[in-house]
Amino acid sequence: MALFRTLSLRLSSPPQGSISTIVRAFSDHTDLKDVLNNKIPYEQERVKKFRKEHGNVKIGEITVDMAYGGMRSMKGLVTETSVLDPEEGIRFRGLSIPECQRMLPKAKGGEEPLPEGLFWLLITGDVPNEAQVKSLSKEWASRADLPSHVVTMLNNFPANLHPMSQFSAAITALNSESKYAKAYSEGLHKSKYWEYVYEDSMDLIAKLPTVAATIYRNLYRDGSSIGAIDTKKDWSANFASMLGYTDPQFTELLRLYLTIHSDHEGGNVSAHTVHLIGSALSDPYLSFAGGMNGLAGPLHGLANQEVLVFLNKITAALGDGWTKEGLVQLIKQQLASGQVVPGYGHAVLRKTDPRYTCQREFALKHLPDDKMFKLVAQLYEIVPDILLQTGKVKNPWPNVDAHSGVLLQHYGMSEMSYYTVLFGVSRALGVLASLVWDRALGLPLERPKSMSTDGLMKLVKSLQSQANAAKGA
Ligand code: CMX
């Protein structure tokens, strides 16, 4: 620690060279905040210099269709933690999912990456070592307790309130604990914003499994106690045990699940919402709760619940002895009734989602004979062709949500309305890492320009007449 601080003091003006070279000196340091403390000044300088030299460079054009069409392909956000390639899928700080599975530290005897390692990677850009990941597990375990008003609130929600509504409301109520909001109200210098956003993000990530497990126990396990956090266990192991699951394979699944659902660059509904709300300098609890309300939509995170509903509908209609012909007919009926096939399609991806593929590999390894898995595998064979035949679906391939529920229910988690809560716990890792960087880079209040249809028509007309005049000249 002392050496680290000395180095950071000596380097008062950022040196030349890539950030990864500079910070290698700190690569064995286990205090994440110290690592960031040293990294952030260099990145701030790098971005400042880049903007000064190239701030006027055009990076795209905006069409009328983009404005009406959900801003697809419009490059208008900066997100450091991950990039989504339409063909290849997600890369977390440059690493694909198989690379993360190979390179990130694992639990003793485990094969899947620890989500703590993924968080370290997302927020610093570096692959952590085991000591760094262990220190995060310990730190999150020490921050996991809930204030009593949140426990009381959770215990008093009616059983018919959807788990995602409970989750979002509890996260909003947790903002009584916001160190950022408190410091801001006392007068906080803007250069310090990120430090308090970091503290809140660490607290929130630590508390999410406790909130989520309390919801689960209240709704599906007669309100039984979640038990105590074990500071020697990793984040997922504690979560699994609070949920009441003892099978080590379920814990491994949870580690994989919480790793792969964490981040999908900046434009998806949950990430964009957190970023947008955070730009108003709302605290991380309020920002993240907003993101969870977006994740709760059926075209986004709730699709994992919808997939299970759809699979159950299939087995109710066709029984376990479904045939390929029967499935084709049912899928066509679903489309004819104006509904989507949940778990298929994506706004950016144009190939099978690698998050689907790694879950399929997990299933092939651990539950190859599971009936529901076989159904999911069969749907993979037939849904894309049917979606392509509609002539309008841009991506007929399965996304992350097509697979997750089947794995969870294999280990006994059959409560499908709960699945999006797990997605939400994982999503915190990516969006809160991004929120820290948003404040570190001083990104301002987000405020894109909107136009009315009349205004757009006038603009198009005037642009056309300018173009015609230029042609005539
Ligand atoms: N089933 C039926 N129709 C689909 C479809 C699907 N799985 N995917 C796309 N389409 C339809 C769209 O509804 C749209 O129809 P209209 O022109 O009649 O409105 C048309 O095909 C074109 O859509 P697109 O450009 O291919 O897809 P979008 O970028 O507009 O939407 C998504 C992307 C994910 C909302 C869409 O594919 C969908 O609704 N999928 C099912 C829900 C789902 O699985 N969501 C989870 C996504 C992953 C996540 O965020 O968790």
Automatic annotation (TrEMBL):
Catalytic residue list:
H300, H346, D401
- Compartments, record wording: Mitochondrion matrix
Q: In which pathway does it act?
A: Carbohydrate metabolism; tricarboxylic acid cycle; isocitrate from oxaloacetate: step 1/2
Give one Pfam family, short name only.
Answer: Citrate_synt
The protein's superkingdom reads Eukaryota
Q: Name one GO biological process term.
A: tricarboxylic acid cycle
Keyword Cell division attributed = no
Name the catalysed reactions. Answer: oxaloacetate + acetyl-CoA + H2O = citrate + CoA + H(+)
Task: Give the main localization category.
Answer: mitochondrion
Any single GO molecular-function term of the entry would be: citrate synthase activity
The record's Gene Ontology cellular component field reads: mitochondrial matrix
Query: Any idea which UniProt keywords this protein has?
Result: Transferase, Tricarboxylic acid cycle
The entry sums up its family as follows:
Belongs to the citrate synthase family.
According to the record's subunit comment, the protein's assembly and interactions are: Homodimer.
Identification of the protein by name:
Citrate synthase
The scientific name of the source species is: Daphnia pulex
